[in-house]
Design goal:
The strands form three sheets. The chain has a six-stranded mixed sheet with strand order 1-6-5-2-3-4, with helices on both faces. The protein has a five-stranded mixed sheet with strand order 9-13-12-10-11. The protein is α/β, with parallel strands linked by helices. Strand 7 and strand 8 form a beta hairpin. Helix content is 45%, strand content 13%. The protein contains 19 helices and 13 strands.
C-alpha cells in the first residue's frame, strides 16, 4: 500500500500540490481517511466534479476510507471561490432535496457497503446548525487573521474587480476549516482533497487543527480542469454535462466523451477511466480514424462507471446504428451530399459554408440565423455557435451528418 496511491495519482495527472508529501507517505502506510466537500447548490453534479470523485474512488480502491462531505450547512453561505458574484441563497428545503439526489450519484462511484473500507457520506449541517455565534467566533474565529484571508485568491479576485463579497461568503473559509477540525476529531480524517482554487481554505483548516489540537494534517489539491480549447470542464454550448441520467440521458453523456478534442483523449483516459496507464500510453501516437476508435473506448469506459455497462453498450450501438444507416440512406438527395479530401477540409471549415454547399441554406446569412435559432445539428448534436468550424474529430468513420430541422439532412464524407 505504501506509496501506491501517490504513484497512481501522479502518473494519471491528479496531483497538483501537497502540503507535506513526506507526512502523506507516512500516513498512507496504513489505512487512512480523506475527505472532499461538495456543496448542494444543484440536484445533480456535472463533469466538473468528476475529477474529485474519481480521486476519492482511487483512494478507496487503494484500501483507504473516503468521506463525501455534503455541504448542507456551507451551501447556506456560498463558496466565493471562482465566482464573480454572490450565489443565490437556497432554502433549507431545496438544499435537502438536492442532498437526497446527490447521495444517489455518489453511490455510482463509491462503495458504501464495502465491509473493509466503506465510504461515508456526512453532512456539515449536523454540526453547523447548533453553533452558538458568540462562542464560535471566540473559539474558532479568533484563530483567523483577516489580513491573511484577504490574500486568498477567491477573495482577492472579487476585491480587485470591485465585485460584491458579502460578509456571509467571507466566513466560508472559517466554516470549511471548522469542518476539517470536526472530521479530524470525530472521524480520524487527516487528509483533505480539493481543487487548486481551494488551497487557501485547505491551509486554513490545517492551521486550525494545529492550533487547537497540536496535530499535523495534510492537504492535497488537483489541477484545474481545462480542456485543450481553454474551457473549464462541466459546461458546453449545449449546457451542463450532468452525471444524473434524468438531467442528461446516457446517450448524450456518451456522445460528449466520444466527441472530445483529439488533444484531450489521452489525458481524459488517465483521469476518468481505470484503463492501465501503460495501455493508454500506447494510444498517444494515434490519429484520425484510429484515434476515433480510442474515443469510443473513452466514451464506453466513462459511461460504464457513471451509468453502467449496459447503458454504455446501448449508447455505442445506437451511435453505430445511426452512422451505418446514414451511409446507405438513399432518401438523402445527391445535391445534399458532399465528398471532400482532408486537404479541402482544412481549407474549408465554417459550418455556415457547409450548409450552403449542401444546399441546406441559400446564403451565409441564412446559415447564421439557422444556427443561432438552434435549428442545426451535427451528428444529432445541436450547434448554436454561429462561428462553429467543422473539425476532423466531428467525423465518425470519415462520415458526418448535418441536419436542419427534422426533415433536411446532408452528408459529408472524407474521401
Amino acid at each position: 500500500m505504501n506509496n501506491s496511491f501517490i504513484n497512481h495519482i501522479t502518473e494519471r495527472g491528479f496531483f497538483n500540490q501537497c502540503t507535506n508529501i513526506d507526512l502523506l507517505n507516512l500516513i498512507l502506510k496504513k489505512p487512512s481517511v480523506a475527505y472532499i466537500g461538495f456543496d448542494c447548490t444543484a440536484d445533480s453534479l456535472h463533469i466538473g466534479s468528476l475529477l474529485p470523485i474519481m480521486l476519492l474512488r482511487a483512494f478507496q480502491k487503494h484500501g483507504h476510507v473516503p468521506i463525501v462531505l455534503l455541504g448542507g450547512g456551507t451551501t447556506l453561505i456560498g463558496d466565493p471561490s471562482g465566482k464573480d458574484e454572490t450565489r443565490v441563497i437556497l432554502t433549507t428545503e431545496k438544499i435537502n432535496q438536492n442532498k437526497k439526489k446527490l447521495k444517489k450519484i455518489f453511490s455510482k462511484f463509491l462503495s458504501f457497503d464495502n465491509k473493509k473500507n466503506p465510504a461515508k457520506i456526512l453532512d456539515n449541517y449536523e454540526w453547523i446548525k447548533n453553533l452558538n455565534y458568540v462562542n464560535f467566533i471566540r473559539d474558532i474565529g479568533s484563530q483567523f487573521s483577516v489580513n491573511r484571508m484577504l490574500t486568498f485568491e477567491s477573495v482577492k479576485q472579487r476585491l480587485e474587480r470591485e465585485q460584491h463579497l458579502s460578509f456571509l461568503e467571507f466566513n466560508y473559509a472559517i466554516i470549511q476549516s471548522f469542518d476539517f477540525l470536526e472530521l479530524f476529531k470525530n472521524h480520524n480524517c487527516s487528509i483533505q482533497f480539493g481543487g487548486s482554487d481551494q488551497w487557501g481554505n485547505i491551509i486554513s483548516g490545517i492551521e486550525l487543527i494545529k492550533k487547537k489540537i497540536g496535530k499535523e494534517t495534510i492537504g492535497l489539491t488537483t489541477p484545474l480542469m481545462i480542456t485543450s480549447s481553454g474551457q473549464k470542464m462541466g459546461k458546453t454550448n449545449k449546457g451542463a454535462i450532468w452525471l444524473d441520467n434524468n438531467k442528461l440521458n446516457y446517450y448524450d453523456y456518451w456522445q460528449y466523451w466520444r466527441n472530445v478534442d483529439d488533444k484531450d483523449v489521452i489525458k481524459f483516459l488517465k483521469l476518468f477511466t481505470e484503463i492501465d496507464t501503460k495501455e493508454i500510453n500506447k494510444f498517444s501516437k494515434l490519429s484520425g480514424s484510429e484515434l476515433n476508435k480510442i474515443k469510443i473506448l473513452l466514451a464506453n469506459e466513462v459511461t460504464k462507471i457513471c451509468h453502467g455497462e449496459e447503458f454504455a453498450k446501448k449508447a455505442e450501438q445506437s451511435s453505430l446504428k445511426i452512422f451505418s444507416e446514414r451511409k446507405i440512406d438513399k432518401n438523402i438527395p445527391e445535391k445534399n451530399k458532399l465528398s471532400i479530401s482532408k486537404g479541402e477540409l482544412i481549407k474549408l471549415k465554417s459550418l455556415k459554408e457547409y450548409l450552403v454547399l449542401l444546399n441546406l441554406s441559400k446564403s451565409l446569412g441564412e446559415s447564421k440565423r439557422l444556427i443561432e435559432n438552434g435549428g442545426v445539428k451535427i451528428n444529432n448534436k445541436k450547434i448554436i455557435d454561429k462561428n462553429y468550424n467543422i473539425k476532423e474529430n466531428d467525423f465518425d468513420d470519415n462520415l458526418i451528418n448535418i441536419s436542419v430541422g427534422k426533415k433536411r439532412n446532408g452528408l459529408i464524407e472524407i474521401c
